[in-house]
Write a structure and sequence with these properties.
By secondary structure, this protein is of the alpha+beta class. It has a single domain, classed as Gcn5-related N-acetyltransferase (GNAT) (Aminopeptidase), CATH 3.40.630.30. It is built from five helices and eight strands; from the N terminus they run E-E-H-H-E-E-H-E-H-E-H-E-E. It has an eight-stranded mixed beta sheet with strand order 1-2-3-4-5-6-8-7, sandwiched between helices. A hairpin with a 2-residue loop joins strand 3 and strand 4. The longest helix has 23 residues. It is globular.
Amino acid sequence: MTHEAWIVAPEPFDSPDAVALWRECYTHMSDSWYLLRENRRTDPDELEREIAADPGTDFAPPGGALVIARYEGAAAGMAGVRLLDGARVGDARVADARAGNARAELKRVYLRPEFRGKGGAELIVGAAEDEARRLGATRMVLETRSDFVAARALYERLGYDEIEPYTFAQYSEHWYGKDL
């Protein structure tokens, strides 16, 4: 997907740019949680442990995808998509998803601060939705937090509606869904 200076395309979850963006994304999410609630940043040991525990293998084919957005060639943001309901690489459920009976989850939506306000967020989510369709999903869901006001406004602007919780993770406060 392209739009003027933007190019958004699938990329391996373990590419150098994907790894760097994930580190920034996780640091942003974690630091904002702790700053809001405990007036401190994330403990460095905790940060390293959590990033290492979630390297992004869920965003590898055939059950997932990761898109990287580049603005004038610079890595600017990303989004991941993974099939839900237990679908994993090598799992027979991936074939079921391709039959059109699956939900995909939107994860790791992140845009570096210096690239915000340039129209990239909509392109990233749109490219992730395209990847979800390619995987066979007919519905996209996501979860987010109350303090991510701009993200929630983006999802609503793009046609996502609040739904009942589908996860019960500690940090989940809002759940959204959209038919693809």
